[in-house]
Design goal:
With about 350 residues, this protein is α+β, with helices and mostly antiparallel strands. It has eleven helices and 15 strands. It comes from Halomonas flagellata.
């Protein structure tokens, strides 16, 4: 991943009501294998965090950011067009983030800003990184205290696909930013700082996709083994896209699920009108909750999606029995005829 520009500024925050202050770097970081490894680690940690996906608000728009456009996209344009150098651009960004930290956080940290290129795609990444205390072994084989970056504790981070934003794509998903459940005010302030509005609900879209898949499996009346294979293919593909920070493409997913009928699942989605976007930013937490429970014994074969447990399906552990609240239509008709 070629690094075009990168820099780290320090944000100091004393305890209590003291404001956060920015200690800016005088120059950009020099390229190094350590920097490459850090950026790879930051990207991996970022992709695993809950995020909002969206776009910049146009001038005068109202949206989730609450105040129309912000200074950030304007400064970004000035930087990209050569009117503002990278150090000055990142320093202005750091000053604004320092104000946000002062209002919502009690931690100091380091602000990493990086402009990278991968193939034809340019990306801007920013992340507020914190430290944790650890231990190491020095050259004399003695235990020594060590401070290291705690990437899992990334309080604020955003990723912008510059090529998509500046190109002709109609996408409303070129910008993403962290949205931890425990920091709603912080996330809202961050979105306002970025001048961003959500363009798609990643959690809701992922849930709808999984519902569409469950309906598809039921409609096709697939054998247990084939149903399990398709479920695993869906989760593997979607999880891989999430790990790389890429969206789920419905047509591509349809091909993954059935090479013989590559458009079958895609046509099912379109014919049933689930209202899904052609590209969906995957929500990893929702994906991790979606697995199929299967079992066969004594002439009884049972298979259902794990997310139905507790709603359509209940397990009574004391009496070791399953309670199915919504019997599939085809099975219900067979039971009626038998009765």
């Amino acid at each position: 991943m070629p690094v075009l520009h990168s820099i780290v500024h320090r944000l100091d925050k004393e305890t209590g009501e003291a404001p956060a202050t920015l200690a800016p770097a005088a120059a950009e970081l020099a390229g190094s294998p350590a920097l490459d490894d850090l950026l790879e680690g930051v990207n991996k940690a970022y992709h695993a965090k809950p995020k909002a996906w969206g776009h910049f608000l146009a001038e005068g728009d109202e949206g989730d950011a609450g105040s129309g456009s912000s200074a950030f996209p304007a400064a970004l344009i000035a930087y990209l067009e050569g009117e503002l150098d990278f150090v000055a651009f990142s320093r202005e960004l750091g000053e604004r983030i320092a104000a946000l930290v002062a209002a919502h956080l009690s931690l100091s940290g380091h602000l990493l800003v990086a402009h990278t290129r991968q193939g034809d795609t340019e990306t801007l990444t920013l992340a507020l990184l914190h430290h944790r205390e650890g231990f190491g072994i020095d050259d004399d084989l003695a235990i020594a205290p060590v401070r290291q970056l705690n990437l899992a504790q990334m309080s604020l981070a955003a990723r912008l696909n510059l090529s998509q934003w500046r190109g002709d794509s109609p996408s409303k998903q070129y910008l993403s930013w962290t949205r931890d459940r425990g920091g709603r005010k912080l996330a809202e302030g961050f979105a306002e700082l970025l001048g961003a509005a959500e363009g798609v609900d990643a959690t809701g879209e992922t849930r709808t996709l999984l519902k569409a898949f469950s309906d598809y499996v039921e409609n096709e009346d697939l054998p247990e083994e084939q149903s399990r294979e398709k479920t695993e293919a869906l989760i593997d593909y979607a999880s891989d896209q999430a790990s790389r920070g890429e969206p789920i493409t419905l047509e591509e997913l349809s091909e993954v699920l059935d090479e013989q009928q590559p458009r079958a699942f895609y046509e099912h989605i379109r014919n049933a009108d689930y209202g899904l976007s052609p590209e969906i930013p995957p929500d990893k937490r929702t994906l991790n909750q979606f697995r199929r429970f299967t079992g066969r014994a004594g002439g009884v074969s049972i298979s259902f999606d794990s997310h139905l447990l507790g709603s359509s399906v209940e397990y009574d552990e004391a009496q070791d029995r399953l309670i199915i609240k919504q019997v599939p239509k085809q099975l219900r008709e067979q039971l009626k005829r038998q009765g």
